[in-house]
Design brief:
This protein has 152 residues and is mostly helical. Helices cover 41% and strands 5% of the residues. It has one domain. Strands 1-2 form a two-stranded parallel sheet.
Length: 152
């Protein structure tokens, strides 16, 4: 996986000069890179409040390339119920796109910043307590120890 950073929109990246997206997007089987808005990332000197497009798009990438190519049946059998649960438990709005729920959960799980940084799926502990089924699916692919995303 190759990640390309930009500041305003993905049109700044020569390969995507005709496709302008403000946040970034996951690469597909035919792309060589995944463009991500660097301003929306949290790093020393840039403590950005909100989501993280790198983790978010990485979750889409895992689903669209790895899980599909390896026929990860458990993921695809489990995810629709988890999306319904997220709506029923009001973790995300019913108007929130179903295809984004997994990516937002991974984003919050990896960032682990709490409600000061993210409104839905705000931390590893929140996911474990309020949506343990999503926690179980997420820990199938990611470590259970907290990332040190905010430690700088």
């Amino acid at each position: 996986m190759c990640t390309t950073l930009f500041k305003n929109n993905s049109c700044e990246v020569p390969e995507f000069s005709t496709y302008c997206d403000e946040g970034g997007f996951a690469m597909s089987e035919t792309d060589a890179t995944m463009p991500v808005n660097s301003i929306w990332l949290c790093y020393p000197g840039n403590k950005n409040i909100g989501g993280n497009p790198l983790y978010h798009e990485m979750a889409h990438l895992l689903q669209q390339i790895i899980f599909e190519s390896t026929s990860d049946h458990q993921f695809y059998q489990t995810l629709p119920d988890l999306v319904d649960q997220a709506y029923e438990r009001q973790i995300v709005s019913r108007y929130f796109p179903a295809g984004e729920v997994w990516a937002v959960a991974v984003e919050g799980y990896m960032m682990d910043g709490g409600v000061d940084y993210k409104s839905s799926y705000s931390s590893l502990q929140m996911i474990k307590n309020e949506h343990p089924e999503m926690y179980d699916l997420t820990t199938r692919y990611f470590p259970t120890s907290p990332a040190d995303y905010w430690q700088f």
